[in-house]
Structures are given as C-alpha cells and as structure tokens.
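Hi team,

Filling in the usual template for the complex we talked about on Friday. All components are listed, including any nucleic acid strands or ligand strings, so the model treats them as one assembly.

SUBMITTER: L.P.
PURPOSE: interface mapping
COMPONENTS: two
RESIDUES: 839
SEQUENCES:
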Amino acid sequence: MFRYALRRLIIMVPIGIIVTFIVYAMVFALPGDPIQALSGGKPLAPSVIAAKRAYYHLDDPLFSQYLHFMGNLLQGNLGQTFDGQDIGEQLALRWPVTLQLGLTALAIQTVFGLLFGIYAGWRRDGLVDRALLGATLAVLAVPGLVVMFFAQSVFSVQLGWFPVSGSADGWPTSYLLPATVLGVLGFAGLARITRTSLAEVAGADFVRTGRAKGLSPQRILWRHVLRNALLPVITYIGLDLAGTLGGAIITEGIYNLNGIGQFMFRSIGMKEGGVVVTLSTVLLIGYMVVNLIVDLLYGLLDPRVRHV
Amino acid sequence: MRRSRHAAHAVTALAVVLAASACSSGSGSDDGASGGKKSVVVASKNEIPAINPAKDNSSTSIQLAWAMWAPLTDLDQKTGKLKYVVADSVTSKDARTWTIKLKPGWTFTNGEKLTAKAFVDTWNYTAYAPHGYKNNGFFSRIKGYDNLNPASGKPKKTTMSGLKVINDLTFRVTLDKAFSPYPTTLMYYGSVALAPEVLKDPDSYDHKPIGYGPYKLKSPWKAGQPVVMVRNKKYPLKGPEADQLTYRFFSNPETAYNEFLAGNVDYTIVPDTKGDTYKKDAPGKGAVSKAAVNMTYLVPPVNSAPYKDPKVRRALSLALDRKALTKLRAGSFPATSFTAPSLPGYREHTCGACTLDIAKAKQLLKQAGGFPGTLKMYYNSDDPGQRVFAEALGNMWRQSLGIKVAYVGKPAIDLSALFSKGKVDGMYLGGWGHDYPSIEDWLTPIVGSHGDVNGARYSNPALDKLIDEGNALADPAAAIKKYQAAEDLEAEQMPMIPLYHKPDAYLHAPGVEPLDSPYAGLNPVWSTVSR
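RESULT (copied from the run log):
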C-alpha cells in the first residue's frame, strides 16, 4: 500500500506540469489587455503601461512567461498581482476562509446526506424515502444563486439570526449560513447516491444468507450492507470536496467572504495567469490527495480491493 | 448596530460537532460603535491593494484619501467657488507658471512637517514612469514630465524641471502650456503629498499610510479587514463629526445593500439593480445626490461614412426620445448640454439636437443622402442592462428613420481595447465624470484631438484652438467664455451625442447625513452625525 501511494504521488508531478501549462496558456489566450483594464475609468499614461508590462514580462512570448513564472514559483516567490497586492499574503489570508467554508459545508452535507440516504435506502418506499425523493428533486431543481440570496435576505436581514456577510465574526458564526445553504444544496446528490447504493446491496445474495443465518437486521445493515454500499458514496464525497473548493466563487461573492473563489474570479477577469495557475495548482494537489485518500479507503472498506 | 445572534449561538454547538475538522479563526468584530462615541460605517467597493492615492487612484482609494489626507484646494460646498485648504494661495500671471504657497501648521501624523519639498518629491516620485504609479498621468502638464516618461527605454531623469522649491512653504510649478483651470485640478486627492518617511520605501507603508487629513488609521490595516480610522488630533481645521470612521469592502454591491438593510452599514451607494426598489426596501433612508457629475453619451465613429457628416449625427440625435430612455435608468434625467450641470459656465440647452424632433431628423438625413447599410450598435455584454438600453436606442432609429441596426455585444475589457486603439466601427456608449470642476474637463478629454477618452479619434483644429485660448487666460471668467464658444462649436458638429445624467442614489442610516453638495458631490467622510 505504501508503494502504491508513492507511485500515485510521483505520477502527480508530470500531471501537475501539464495542467499548469494548459491553464497558463488558456488564461494567456483570453482577449483584452489586463493593464488597460487596471485603469478603470481613467486612462493610464502610456509610459506607466509600458513600465508595468515590462515588470510583469507581459510582452514576452507565452512559453518564456510560463518558465519565468514557474521559476519564481519554485523559489517560493509568488510576486504581486497586477494592481500591487502581495499574492503570498492574499493566499495566507484567503485559504483559511475557503477551507472553513468548504469543510463546514461538506460536514453538514455528509451528515445529512448519509443519515437520510441510509434511512431511506434501508426502509425503501417508506414515507421518509418518498419524502426524501421529492425533497431532493426540489433542491436539485432550484438554482443555488436564488437560495443564497433568499437565505441572506430572510435569515440575516429580516430575522437577524446570522451576520449578513463577511468573516469578521470568525468560525463558526460567520460561516454557518453560507455553509448550511451549500450543504443543503449538496446533500441531495449524496442522499440519492447513498440510497440507491444501499438499496442495491440490500438485495444482494449475501444479505439474504445473513438473514437466513438469523443475524439481527441492525448487524446486517451496519456491518455488512453499509460497508459495501459506501464505496460509490466515498468517491462522490471526494469529488464533491474538490468541487466545493473550486466552486465557492458565487457563495463567497454573495456572503462577501474573502476566499480563494473571489480571488480566482478577479484574477481570471484581470488575465492574471500567474495567480490563476498558483490557485489551480493548489486545487489540483488537493484534488489528487483527496482522490488518493479515497482510493486507499477502498482497500479498507472492501478487502477485495487491494493496492499492491 | 447590534444584531441578535441567538440562533447562531444555538446552532453553533451543533456545528462544532458536525465539523470537528474545520479549524477556527477570526478576531472578533471590528465594526460597530463603542462607548457613546459617534461611529460611522461606510460600504465601499472592491478591496484596494494600498492606501496611497498616488499609487492607486481607484475611486475607493481616493475615498480613503478623503479621510486621511486634505486637498490643496477645494470647492465651497455652498457657493461652488474655489477655496484653499492646505494651500494658502495658488497664483499665476500667465496661467503657465504657478506659485503655490502652503499654510503653515500642517503636519503629518508621524510629526513631520508638511512642506513644499514633500509635494515636489511626491509629484516627482509619482511621475517617474518605472515606479508604475497609477496617478502618473495627472502630472503630464508639468514641464519636464516627458523626460520622466520617455516613449521607450528608462528615463534619464528622476525630477521634473517644472517643479521648484522656493522656500519651506512655497513651490513653483511651470507647465508645458498655459492652463487656466490649474488651481481647480489641485482639489483632486491624487495631488496630495506623501510623508518623507514614506517616500524612502513607499511599498512598506501600503497598509500604514501617513497622511494629514481629518482621520488616521486606528492600527495598521490588514488585508481582508475593514479600514478603521479615528480622528487625527493634529488636523488643524474643524474636523468631521464622527469619532470613528470605518470603511468595509464589498465585491458585490448587493451584499452591501443587504448589510445596510440589516443595520450594519450606515452609508452605501444604491446598486443599479436596486434603483427601482430601494425606496420600498428602506423607506425614508434613501436619497438622490444633488450633484450630477457624470454623463452617458453616444460616440459615433466620426471618421467613417456616413457618420462623417454632422447632419447624420444630428439626425441620429434628434430621433432619440431621451425621456423614454431615462425610464430605463432609474434616477436619471435627460442631458441638454455637453457638460455637467452645476459647473461654473454650464448653460442649459446648448445642444440644439438633443430634443426629440423626428420630422427634422428625417429632413436632415434626406439632405445628407440617407443612411446606407447597417448601423452597428456596440454594447457592454458584462452588463445585462446595456443590451436592453442599446436595443431601445436601436428601435428608435429603426422606427423613426428606417435605419437597419445590428447589435454587437462585447465584454468591457475587449471594448476598452477597441476604444483605445480607435477601432470601433459603430456607435458606442461612453461615460464621463469630470476630475476637476471646469467645463474644460468636458472638452479636452472627450473631443479634443488626442483626448484621453476620445475613442473615435475626433479632431477639429478650430475646437482645439478655442480650448487653448481659454487655457491661456488666467482670468477664470474670461476663460469660461472661450470654453463656451468651444461648446457651441461642438453643438454644431455633434462629435458626441449627449443622452442623460444619472446622479448617485444612496442609503444613509437615520441620523447620519453624508455631505451632499451640488458642487462638491457626495462625501460620506464629512457626514453629520446626530444619534
């Protein structure tokens, strides 16, 4: 298993290089001049534009820009955004925000998704099951943006239960509302997958054998059915964590949380290839590590899956 | 300012169990009133990289400078006349060489004296191209600016020959060409001085600026946090009323709006999307600024047929029902002249072709030989409202004049690139707000040859000459006469088609009244506080 993990880690290096280059090239290919866009309403003096272009190597060809950026990145030199913010400082400030939001949302989503999914799958076609199917359908159908604005206006502005925006109150107060909204929106998919997977395993031959042997239903559920049913669920959670981190742009915007999502959005708008690649690289590593953990968990849950 | 958080605390316990993996952080609330002191919380736009109006002259940065610096000159909010603040006098005989005397007694918050040398050093530092300071262009009128900003390569000089320190409190500014509105340009906060201590290594003071304004930072500002300011005891004039002033940054204006409704913010601009509903959402708390310092106008591609003919441009303007158009822009009113109302020298109805007259429009278009081909109407596709507005314009031309119209939507970043290269081959919507209160600032940048936002590359030597003549007259009243003549020429030629002015609508908490003057505009820093 150790060798398997090591092999997976080594493969990450070439993938990382390819992905960073592709992302850098894609940002490079976006139309528009970032330094012009900097000026906003007021035009910048041509000499200042020239000075800024030279400072950021914007007139170099794509490949040499990329090498220059990677060289700096490997030396731990993250540099400045086009408008002069320190990228390292911004990352240090923003990662905790996004992580707190993402993990809180994931925790809420996992707990509710598993609870409802397991119950509904075990007591299939019962009242809870039907209610769950209806509720998840509704949740999946409503656009997230609407729910977020609605929740902010009702629970924060009118009822005053939560802060409206910002992270000034720290965790958990500032993150509860956005994370709950994200968690509720995400729980539908998880609950459905858990339910289907559980229902499928519950009909398998070995479950019937267990029943015939006289095992208690509780023991069958927790020891035998669940262990087998959780494989696709864990894959889903792993993918979802990465999705939550990468897709926090809208939530962070509405709740004014200074996280990675907002930084990414702004940087793409400003054509800041370096920042986008730095953020993508971190997301990529996170994604790969989560995937690796998921793969290793397979082996623990199901002895038939072995990593040699 | 206090909000109930019972539910939040109740759910907290649950969340702790749920998310044992999430780490905790956060350092209490930074906003809010304390101990009977008067506190005002202002919502502003995107976070800025540095509190330094010379390095970053974005609107948010300038707003913070309102609090932490003071201008050389300013407009009297009641009369609209020029008055001196940091400057004691700004005088010239020929409108080209200006002597600026400072008042004694101004000091930076670090104790250093505010001297003529501090101004000269700051201006030179800003104008030196390799520093990449965004307010660089502000100094382009000063003699020797070109040496610091060569067309290519590194500049050989670091100081402008047009700046000279006479004594501790006096310096002389020599301009390239005579420019009579110069004293009014000095009310712009991009012209303030940085402390000598800061100029040694400005970047390390990005988050702890040293100014000489009515407020100073309570403690060094941390990125991602609100900017909290307290009164500066060294400020020599009567200061504003609030003891503590906080600026909170919002990347989404609707979030700021919601924070206001929840009572956590005392002042915010109404976002465009709420222009119709804010009076219902916050009854009695909304107001419209007395100042309309901006205008939205159409820019025809004046150098290509058929727009080359002023008759066509007049016809296109006459066919527009501006009353109907302003209904699409909540709070706006039709423009009837080429400059902003409330400016010295502003006259109503200088634009003869800015009122709906379809018969005359048809007649003019017939005289010009009709409109062959399709009219391209460009709009900014980032802004959903602009497509609707562009279609409204197009429909008017189509229905009244029978012109075929095609709509071209592009993101703002692409449009601005096309404008700056002068490559727009259709009509586009331009917007301008003056930097200093002179009608000259509505002529030179928009329709003067090589004007900063003259994207259509309009060039008319007669117009340029009138502006230059006005610039050379040191007497403001005489200069205005010349600028007005230039405006009259513009009205004949119609190189830009005025549409509407839209004063900002804002929300303010009961007992907090921002300064709102038709001349000086909106300023939350100088709010009156009675609560």
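MY TAKE: The longest helix of chain B spans residues 384-401. Confidence is low (pLDDT under 50) at residues 1-35 of chain B.

Thanks, L.
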